[in-house]
User: What shape does this take?
Amino acid sequence: MWNRAGQIVPLATLGAETTVVDINDRGYMAGYARPSDAVLPVAARWSPSGAITRLGVFPGGDEDGIGAAIAPDGTVAGFASNPNEDNHAVLWKVSACPLQ
Assistant: This one.
């Protein structure tokens, strides 16, 4: 990611594929990352400093999810698989995005 000063900020990974899908006005990002020991991606959120937060999954569900959009307050919308491997819409309420 490039910050407002035009400098590159490396994003943390979980070991393998990492994809950012959306970014909010405060520089927080939503998307997904795949741990190096996993087949499926997990929903994730990145801070403007590049730190990653792994978002939750359904109890008993696969480690499968994608963050598709991020609101100004840090809420991430996306989808995750339940224990029957059906995809469902999800809102992840994570700590608010402080002003940077």
The radius of gyration is 13 Å. The chain has a mean pLDDT of 84.
